[in-house]
Fold each of these.
Amino acid sequence: MARGIRDKVAILGMGCTRFGERWESDAADLMVEAYVEAMADAGIDRTQLDAAWLAVGFEATSIGPSSIPLSIALRLPNIPVTKVENYCASGTEAFRGAVYAVASGAADIALALGVEKLKDTGYGGLPVRSRGLVYDMMSNGGTAPGNFAQLAAGYRARHRLDAGDLKRAIGHVSVKSHANGAKNPRAHLRKAVDIDTVLNAPMVAEPLGLYDCCGVSDGAACAIVTTPEIARSLGKTDLVSVKALQLAVTDGWELQGDGWDGGYVNTTRQAASRAYQEGGIRDPRGEISMMEVHDCFSITELVTMEDLGVSAEGRAIHDVRDGFYDADGGIPCQIDGGLKCFGHPIGASGLRMVYEMYLQLLGRAGERQLKDPRIGLTHNLGGMPSQSVCAVTIVGRHGE
Amino acid sequence: MAIGITRFGAYIPRLRLPRAAIAEANAWYNPGLKGMAKGERCFANWDEDAITMAVEAARDTLGESSRDDVGQLVMASTTFPFADRQNSVVVKEALNLPDAVAAMDVAGSQRAGTSALRAACLGSGGPTLVVAAEKRAAKVAGEAEMTTGHAAAAFLIGEDPVAEFLGAHSTAVDMVDHYRSSGEDYDYNWESRWVREIGFGEIVPNAVKEALSRLSLKASEIAHLVVAGPSGIGARVAAQSGISATAVADTLAATMGDSGTAHPLLLLADVLERARPGEIIVVVGFGQGCDVLAFRATDRIGSVRPLLGVRGWLARRAEMRNYARYLALTGALDIERGIRAELDQQTAATVLYRNRKAVLGLIGGRCTKTGTVQFPMTRVSVARNAHEIDTQEPYPLADLPGKVLTFTADRLAYNPNPPLYFGTVQFDGGGRLTADFTDVDEGAVDVGMRTRMMFRIRAVDEVRGFTKYFWKAAPAFNAKVA
């Protein structure tokens, strides 16, 4: 394996808007909001930026083509700006671009920003869109919750679970996230819910009810990265550095080949395994302090716990119900409220997750602050379980 | 060499509306419907039309027999989805018939089905597949809503038949008992008593008598008389033609309704399922004249059976009493569909042409080196650890049984018949597809359920008037969780 990027890049500053129904804001307003916070945190001015990456999921409604909208909105000094899109991993993809630029030495300081304006589409839930002319002709009419509900059917069959038991376990996932999100002023949904509310909510795609689905919102998040040396030269003392950053993309085997049973996500297993190797993590359950995983739907979070190797095979349902991933559990998960409470502005979500890890590692998470976290993991899953792109990022205190 | 029907089959949609439901919903407007409120009518699901029903009837007919030697394909309908895109060619692609097929659409009359069958029996040019399919729209609270049904029938015509073609006689008379002008959705009907008296009382019996005379057949020899039409009309034609009343074939009015130009053929397919060697069958088609066709069951009758056949399809039924839902599914109700129905459904004709074998024929690929089956066929094989290039051969998946690997009932998705059931189907022998499901009952799907693929409407591009077809998974005829 390549040498990787462990500890080569530090986070200099971050920003994140309030996520929600930002009726008053254009995408450009959200970009500026996240950028201003990140630049103030970094303590630099725009002339010090060498390159930038922009992530957007639905380009037509959010900003249109190219990287120009970011460059204009932030008045970047004619530096290289790259726009990326990789389904729900788009935000992490922008982060990866900036981190790699710094790690390679091509840039001293780079910016990654993700933004999405979902509430200008007229849809509740994600808008319907083409996946390409060829794909569309041989596809189905399912939605995102429909695609991820397949995972529940597959997981239930894989482990021979009672449907009611699984429904209650994924219900706990959402109850836990709502409890966390209620404490976060940047979250979209800030109301705790009880398990009965979750279980009795209207069905969206069986077995996923309304509270098994993440919110839909507008938002932006921004990271500025540099080398640990430059960060120190700029006066930073406590550094958060990137330990690993891995992306795994399906080769089509799950959907086209034979053998996958639909009860796990192959790309998550691939990305996690490589990230642990890159980051020097030998015992994920023992070493990871906290996680922000891709809880687009409650079932995704539950299954991801096994795919990340944090819960043993078939044990996630028990860990979830035992509170292992609650705020006071063994590995707090979605301590900021997750996609469940932030909603999922596609381009921004990956960076929003890193933002929470960054705040926690620096002890700046306020009411949500965990005790002495050392290693944080973020996880994005784009596409659908049968045809996915997965990003796993590990960040931690630099020098540890 | 005797020519005639070598294989036969039919298709009847699964949905059934009790006529009492029509009468009850419309009693305020047309209380007279109550007198017709017996039995049930069949109707096509929202994703079925004449093309999809024709495909199923042809599959019912052909079964597992080879399709490679079919030389001609004739499709009859008065409800073709396309006025100018040969409908039979879409059927041909779905059936994976060879490209070297002479295809033809026959339309314009309720007699189109019998005329197509007659032409096929009289013609030459290799085995001919004749398909008739009909999905007539009926106005709310009109008599036609009670009497019509949607269905299809198919025959393979060739040598060594199960029913030898004895000959035919046709007349052409412009009697406008009803008509439908180009671009109109509904029939306009003239007084039914006149149609009975002159149409079925004169034009039809005269043609039958002339046919028997020309073919040197005695009326007493006729074992089965197939006449589609108003209630009791077969008996009247029989009486006026000297044919025994016991020969009159059941019109299936009680269980499905009249399927228009497909109906005489569907009734013939039904008769062939129980005909005995030597029996003579006369089939009548009425509409601006009359077709009379005569067949004799051979010793081979009984040796060839359709997949399900008329009675099998009738047994595969799902009652739907909800009249509003029937109206919505048949397109008669402008139901609020929401923003998800607004997705642009434009078809790139170039893409469809390149991918027609996969889209219309559900042809996948099988790697000649590893044996791995996949859909769609691609240049680089999906086989794990053996991504061979250009090693795949076409591999038809449409007729392979499968089972459900994953599924959900999606209530967010736009679907004319919610919820949208969809999921991944694993084919027996390899290959899989994530597909929409159709003809499913709520709560009846589970992992492991056995499936059968069906050719259906995937979506309609309403802006450009283009129907998009693809394959969907339906519960196998006797679906059980494996």
Note: Chain B has a mean pLDDT of 96.
Amino acid sequence: MEKFTTLSAIAAALPEANIDTDKIIPARFLKTTQRTGLGRHAFDAMRYREDGSENPDFVLNREPWRKAEILITFDNLGCGSSREHAPWALLDFGIRCVIAPSFADIFFNNCFKNGILPISLPREVCERLMDDASMGENARLTVDLARQVVIRPDGEEVSFDIDPFRKHLLLEGLDDIGQTLQHEQGITRYENREHQEKSWMPSIHID
Amino acid sequence: MAPRTLFDKIWDDHVVETLPDGTSILYIDRHLVHEVTSPQAFEGLRLAGRRLRHPERTIAVVDHNVPTSDRTQPIEEPESRNQIETLERNVKEFGVPYFPLLSANQGIVHVVGPEQGISLPGMTIVCGDSHTSTHGAMGSLAFGIGTSEVEHVMATQTILQKPAKNMRVTVEGVPGHGVSAKDIMLAIIGRIGTAGGTGHVIEFAGSAIRGLDMAGRMTLCNMSIEAGARAGLVAPDETTFEYVRGRPFAPKGEDFDRAVAYWKTLATDEGAHFDKEVTLRAEDISPTLTWGTSPETVLPISGTVPDPAQEPDEARRAQMQRMLDYMGLEAGQAIAGTPVDVVFIGSCTNSRIEDLRAAARVAEGRKVAQGVRAMIVPGSGNVKRQAEEEGLDKVFLDAGFEWREAGCSMCLGMNPDRLTPGQRCASTSNRNFEGRQGPGGRTHLLSPAMAAAAAVTGCLTDVRELV
């Protein structure tokens, strides 16, 4: 997983609430067995017209937001399915940071696992950042994860909260499995205890 | 010890270790795997030279992509075929128990788990699918995870989590005629909204919930995710124990008795703290359906489509208008009487034998309206077989319904079962998002009985007029 330290980039505003995972990546594109290549279908229904051509009104089809690496939306971003294809599609498009007043739980989790930083900020702050984003190339936002601030084009710093463990994993680009396996003895102890206390626990075997 | 909730008890019982920042390593009893969200996880294991820590706590099925027509022919869509073949290679290589496509036990993972006795009370259950919340009906803590977490569970049999908050939704009273678990759940989501449960695990309680059979409880817990909750659950009781008894993978004999003794300790203690409480009266709930493209946009069947002009918030007003345009509805129109093109009875929400019986009661002796395509997609091979033993297939076929093989089907249109642009569908599934059932498709979520009523009248109809 790529580290996330600081990101200075073009931000795109998508001023909608409840942007669901079917909108981010429709189910018919989930047939891949890879993590990459989904970027061209990110926001498919909003991005392309029925004949397959680009919808020129959609923000991510316009310059300079085609190169956006930060996405700002309203509440409950990523609601719906658990598909990790949603952050994969965003990442493959180039998005490294999503900012919204609130997120759906599973999507929020999935972002961290892929080096995307989800930042939760009050709606009025998101609206101000959307104003900045509307200035496109002239207004890059900077996200400094170590200092936990978003720096606006006028230099104003907006601080945000983040779970310290997740911050650490992002800054170092670490995945969870290696971390957890450091606690393997604890897992084995748990299993031994369970074996005694829940001796009824069935195993699944199919011939 | 302070009084604890059902969720607290299951959680406490599965904590392996709590890290200094409050994240817990939580032990996972059951891992359910399907073809769509697992290939990248198996690939990750392979690249790291890892194995599954406990294949015997894991079960794999194919459901999302599978055709629901003739299964003896090769799968036509090459990408779907590839995903299914990839799973078959992976379960072989990693030694994962698997119900193949042609097994009678094949079906939607959230139907198969409880049906086989694989999902049991008091367990922690995960799957790379948000509707894993379904298994909470067993009195287990069950939630959806992403593919990175799928790989994590495969490698470690644990997951990293912080405890959720506790929320209780209490429904008291006796549901009226024609009102099912689906109507109750739609009413709940309408009340609390699609983010109403975010960060919480919802315990469903109250006399109306205790009165539900297991299928109804599964419908309820299934759609907890549509209320934004991490999981939904119902305390295990005699209804649960009777359901579990004798299932193929459930404990047997003395083991069963020992398990029940443990399961009986799980119910929420008197005086346990809930961070959020919501109460509804079952008598206030009518047959309910959605009008928009978010599951919270619900109406009683007697209702009229809301008017965006009445909405004070500008962003919400614009969103409502967009929904009306997408759905092809006018503000103020009565929802009943709206013609439908397709009826879909199936999905992990409503494809169990009880659901099919409810639909058959409406369909019996009637005909699917002209121009309507109506499909029945049983949740598993076993549900299909049982329905055939009861003669339900005949009822449906005589009425002009399609009688199909088990799978996720038109709930999300990953297989060939899809809406075409502009088609309106009365659907027993769980999501009415734009394009969910096919690009441009228009979805109204409702109960199996209401869906059958729409099929035989050709329009959204109050089922109470028919039964």
Note: The domain at 288-465 of chain B is CATH 3.30.499.10 (Aconitase; domain 3).
Amino acid sequence: MALTKLDQMYRAVILDEAQHPRHHGVLADFDHEITVRNPSCGDVLHLQISEKDGRVNDVAFSGNGCTISQASASLMTDQILDKTPAEIEQMVETFSDLIIKGDVPDADRLGDAAVLKGVHQFPARIKCATLAWKAAAQVLTEKGKTDD
Amino acid sequence: MREQFPFFKAHPNLVYLDTAATSQKPQALLDSLQNYYINDNANVHRGLYKLAYDTTEAYESVRQQVADFLHAQSAEEIIFTHGTTDSLNLVASAFGPHAVPTGGRIVVSGAEHHSNFIPWQQLAKRQQATFVVTPVHSDGTVDVPALLAAITPGTNLVAIAQVTNVAGDTLPVAKIVKKAHDMGAFVVVDGAQAVAHMSVDVQALGADFYAFSGHKIYGPTGIGALYGRADLLAKMPPIQFGGEMISEVRDQGSTWADGPIKYEAGTPHIAGVIGMGAALHWFQENVDAAALQVEHELANQLRTALRAIPDLTVYGNDDSLATVSFNLTGIHPHDVATFLDEQQIAIRAGHHCAQPLMARLGIPATVRASFGIYNNQDDVTKLVEAVQAARRYFHGID
């Protein structure tokens, strides 16, 4: 079976990340909150972010989705810690490019999250990967406005 | 059978198990579309030249053909629409306010497709009516006694699928209609998942309205039909205005054409109608009860094989016709779908436009395999092997 393409997307680290997500749950105190959906597939993601001195100092997500969306949310929440909203906005742009193109020069700023680049070979799954990132950018720029 | 579908020559290794979403098309349909555009293209109901007259005849003969196919009393009861969604929205917008008074009551099953759910939900809002969504069983099939019990005195309208699109169960429409009519309620039936898998007789069912799509019965996309009982259509006003649908237009007022063209404003999808006629003709010539039984048996073989896989939930039951929904515990349906796609197996994963059902089952989505007349044993075997492989892959077994 030719599963190389699959293996590139479902790296062991991604399967593990989805099964044991970091920052999964809810925060008692937070400054930003958003619920986003992928209406074509029913994925729901609830994201809370707490800020201190202009940087993200805590974050949590909950909801449900596929391996890609859960792993991506877990990696995203880990990578945005200690970052400013402006930095996060840039990261989200870079991540989006990476997932669509498969390679970008500034992938380094994404840290471990760059492991998701294999998704670019599966156009139908791009939205799964970008859901959490777009939620972060949206909530940090729109100050807690939700789509509910 | 399969050799009549050029799609499978273009995709010789593809296992296509998504006919509930849309069917593949027989050569007979493609020939009819090509013939229409090469030889017969003219606008209907207008031109006085022979070609236009002949095309109008052909177009109207499909109306009779659809009436016969559904066992309607007459062609006057058949309205051409863009498909099931369009048909159901037409009933909800045009007939809904007549059927459901302010403060009335609408009943739908908890397993309806969004297209037979939202139009009624929105009608209920407009009419400040009670909108009742009835329970489902844990396997996703409709709880029929609960549905019947919900049809109380004061119920004005009941909307149900004849065959549901996730669990694939067939509702006892005639029984539901009897209860509804006893209570003075109208019944609208979504036949999208039924027409390609069973014989339909709207008079025997007693349905007041019945909707279906051409593309789910081996016909073109963008065309479908609405059956409406003649005495009810007489009370139903048009909701789209324009060419074709009038009797007379004056500066300050207009009158409407009689019959179904009242609801077919503008140049209709003529090629679609001709194509749907060709598809229905092909279907009636080529697909008999025995062929449909084979299709059902394939679905049951799949259900049986899937039930033998550990950590796997199958929705529906062995009465479910051609649709098999399932989930592997701990593996999201989208991941399963991607895995299967890599092995050239096309199935559907998602909420299947049935979010109220997903909410009742407490799941975000299912994997759904659905059969058409071209599927075979090999398709079942390949899918079952691939599902087993997906389970091993995502659970990190072996």
Note: The helical segments of chain A are 4-9, 12-19, 67-80, 85-101, 126-142.
Amino acid sequence: MDIYNKSVVELSKLLNKKKVSSLEMTDYFINRIKSFDSKLNSFITIDEDHARKQAKIADELIANNKNNLLTGIPIAHKDLFSTKGMLTTCASKMLENYTPPFDATIVNKLNEAGMVNIGKTNMDEFAMGSSNESSYFGVVKNPWDLKKVPGGSSGGSASAVAARLIPIATGSDTGGSIRQPASFCGLTGLKPTYGSVSRYGMIAYASSLDQGGPIATSAEDCALLFNKIKGYDKNDPTSNFNTDQDEVKLALKKQDTKNITIGIPKEYFSKDLDRNISDIIYQSIEVFKKLGFNFKEISLPDHDYTIPAYYIIASAEASSNLSRYDGVKFGHRCDKPKNLEDLYLRTRKEGFGKEVKKRIMIGAYALSSGYYDEYYMKALKIRRIIRDNFINAFKDVDYIFAPTCPSTAFDLGEKSSDALEMYLSDIYTTPVNLAGLPAISIPVGFSNNMPVGMQIIGNYFTEANILSIAHLFQEETGWHNRIPEDFDHE
Amino acid sequence: MSNWETVIGLEIHVQLLTKSKIFSSSSTSYGKDPNKQASYVDLGMPGTLPVLNKSVIRKAVEFGLAIDAKIARKSIFARKNYFYPDLPKNYQISQLDLPIVEGGYIEIKDSDNKNKKINITRAHLEEDAGKSIHSDENNCTYIDLNRSGTPLLEIVSEPEMQSANEAVSYMKKIHSIVTYLKISDGNMQEGSFRCDANVSIRKVGDKKLGTRTELKNINSFKFVEKAINYEVQRQIDLLEEGKKVTQETRLYDENKNITKSMRSKEEANDYRYFPDPDLLPIEINDDYILEIQKTLPELPEVKAQNYKSNYDFTDEQINIILSNSEITNFIDKILPISKISAKKLINYFISTVYIKLNKENLNLLEDDLKPKDFYMLIELIENKTIAKNNLKVIIDELWGNNKDISFIIEKHINENANDDAELINKLIKSIVEKNDKQVKEYKNGKTKIIGFFVGQVLKEAKGADPSDIKEKLIKLLDSI
């Protein structure tokens, strides 16, 4: 059964034609995880029994023609989506033994669609990191080169999909955590508009920036999943009715492209960007030009302030969001606390890793009296300016193309000692989160045998269009179908 | 007298009367088994999000309109960060900048019985914490999160009260407004209405405020008065001994009637407030405010004016009627049908029902006592069909059991009511005649001696109504 290299759309056809059952497909991918994941460490939890149970239900739905395109397809969730009765650790010692009593809205919607949840993928602890090296459960490796990082924080999801251990996975993107690992692993990853997808049950890192979305091989697969998870949720007041309207269709035709203008922000192609990456992106722009799209250089000023503003806002929110982990109610509790203060201090000292502690401290400092105006307020002002710059740009152009990352995947350990260097790898992704816009990262080529990603950034709630543009490109090119050699076999 | 002047500001926490909590769908009802009314949101489970209960907005706006305040067209929630085991998220969702209600005022009586305006700084929405129950016996702390997430309106006054009495009047006024508007049940035993008092003193004439202390969580009018009086004296003693008042939070110990230090300013938390990213701003438009304005019940202030101009009530009687909306509703149902003077009617009410309410800590609902039944009883007393001293007993019998009133009255019809009155008149006359010395004392202004006469009459006429006797005695003595 040679199906590891199939997309979700292709697998769905096989299920529908009853060429293969969901149970067979589920066992197939479980076996693949068992054979290959020791090299990658992309999973924290695998729940075979749960998966087979869901697969059997899916097979019944298919037998009774009650299925949709996702019914019976195996999926894995980033380990910050709450899964009822299944460990949800956030890759932290703090939640090592935490089993949620309820499902995240995303998980619930996909369960209802009949998808088969095989398990939970590794990540940076509490989604804080750009290399998946901060996980309590160990680093994740990049299937394209096991000495390299898969990116982060959704590194486990990206690594698993790239090695075709699972056809599709969920991720979350606070500052680039879907797009950057998708780029490092040669995948397609969609960060929806803030509010498009419910955050309920997704364990918070930075509430005003966090957004869940799909990581898959193709834009088509991302669209399938996005259709099922989007929409208003009464449990999340920041979710938005805008996305409830229509099903996303990849409706863009080649004859429509001549009316579309794409902006190339000059600030995103400065000396910070690896020259090879710049060249590859310009080569792919040639493909888009042939498809009929128009291009225009634009300016997105104040780009240099993005990273400081992002790290202040995200850390400030995190410092408050992570206060609840105190050893009182759930999660890790230190042994024999002497008193309340001792309980708090030791629990948090033992339960959190270094990167998490660092961000809690940065955030608490930025919010503390006397520093609030200087740091937090100033960061909010920059955030508004960045958003306004995008809004202005979209008066002039329809979409914006940008590199996803300044480099391809770097070596394990290369940047883990230099926080600033690490933070700069998010320089092209964080502005999109600060502005709350949708963006997709697609593979556009290789530099030194490592994948290169490019972002298509759209105006608010234009997921259908950016998915369509990505899809047109993927119909012309084959980058998204490339599979790392070590994993391109049964 | 004293050359010290007291300055008091109050922060009153009013529990809003809603079915469900401010950010979750759990019930707010009181007295359930511990942690039976705590949802995943109330427990602060990872991934949960607050969803605003919209009915709290309306209640806050009603309060704002009632005190003539500015209603914020846009207000936001903020997180107040501090660690405590009964605060599950280790932050409280509250409001800091842009509270829903700003400004406004109420009027109270000062010590000279003159009207005094007390300005209100702000009123904001927030969630309550749970409860910690410390057990020395088992050397542990139990946590009950049933109260966690209960909606509160925190009403902050300007530091404009100058005595414990004024503070209590202010508190009572706020209490009557919120119960009037039915935005709170105002139940102080259950903590639905509690207050923190900021107290400082300064030399009379000083412009600068003295160092203040904050008295936390006082839940009765009586304790507010006692706590403030104690605290003012403590501060005077300190300053007169040449010592300093420390800025700190203090707790009132109701058993010992003292205040004691809880934490000083140095130990105070830096709450690291910031806008809560999980909640959208509350936006209110003019139409919404206008709509609420139209349906707002008549407020105590306005009602007091109406009572004054339409009936012969005393100020004290009006205060009692307006002290609680249940009482107001009760009286309002009787007034239009009453042929008896309003003053007399209220006296009957105060000496029977009102005393019962306070003594037994009861509500006054239709099912407990029907206003028209109560009025019928008063009429029957007035036309002497039943004896006045039977009123209390009849009310006790009637209370809450929905019996037909005629059935109860029948038992109490006093055919000798008139004769009884006749008898007592005679008795009074003879006792006054027999006690010249005491009559003289009374005439010389020792009016307290009336108690002696009442006692003498009661000895002969057991079970008669003392107030009735007293009234008659005064009439007779004054006429001599």
Note: The CA atoms of residues 162 and 185 of chain A lie 6 Å apart.
